[in-house]
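It would be a great kindness if you could assist me with a short task in structural biology. The matter concerns a single protein, recorded as an amino acid sequence and a row of backbone structure tokens. Kindly check, if you would, that the fold set down in the tokens agrees with what the sequence suggests. Thank you for your consideration; the sequence and its tokens are set out here:
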Amino acid sequence: MNAYSVLLYYIYSPIDNVLEYRDIHHEYCVKNNLLGRIIISPEGLNGTVSGTVEACENYMKWVKSDPRFQSIDFKVETYDKVAFNKLYVKIKKEIVHSELPVDPLVKTGKHLEPQQLKEMLNDPNVVLVDMRSNYEHAVGKFKGAVTFDMENLRDLPKHVSEIAHLKDKTIVTYCTGGIKCEKASAYLLDQGFTDVYQLHGGIIKYGLEVGGENFDGKCYVFDGRVTTDVNKVNPEVISKCHICETPSDRMVNCSNPVCNAHLAICEACGTEYEGACSTACKVHPKKRPYDGTGAYSKPKDGYRPDLAFKTRLNTKKLEIVENLGLCE
């Protein structure tokens, strides 16, 4: 039995004391041996956290004890170890970088629960639209879903024209945990789409609650696992090894740091090319040693999770945090 949990969550709920709350949240995680990435923003909270099952259960209770976050929806997966090497609690302008001129607290697509989506999958009037980056849907996506060749959500306005002919359809947006769809679905409504839904809790919740049927491949996640299984009903590998084109969902970074391409490379090619994505990268003088994983974490030398950033109220610092979206 796995002794650790991985939590994925977000909530759009105004936070007035972002500087103070960032320190409070950081301190709690340090004291309870939780690692992960957490974003504190004036518009809400977004995070992926990992630790022991008990520590994660206590963390969920602690977060929900704050009246601002009582309705937060945690997606909980188990794992055989802590899924992160470090703890980051950052202040940013948005809890997911989009630059879309919308406010999910004012308008957003209708939430669709996993079971409801499962019942709609065979409806020809329903179109699923993936709101994730190209490298994410390359390794896994819903069968028949529309995907965009975009690097991040702020590129969405450049691609809306690709689905303009679907304005008379029922649009269901989806992403990893649901956070991107809050703004993406709102943006589609602003662009004249009238029947817009979003998968509540995203791909992860769909897999946890209804078995992940018709989600092909694996779901890309932003922790040490890199990808996670979703479909327990009719799984299928859709991504191919970058080198030999055999089916593979093993996502790695090229061992040449100058390239550092993030793509699928099967174990056999990984061994043959020493973690590189091509012959040129294999012989590159700066190529990193390959340990069979294709993951190249930054050294933890001098890393001290107990040392919180100093966030004393300072007019200039507050202006930087709120206007430029820089982390503390």
In short: The chain has three domains: 4-95, 110-220, 239-298. DSSP finds ten helices and 15 strands in the chain. The CA atoms of residues 104 and 174 lie 15 Å apart. The longest strand covers residues 4-12.
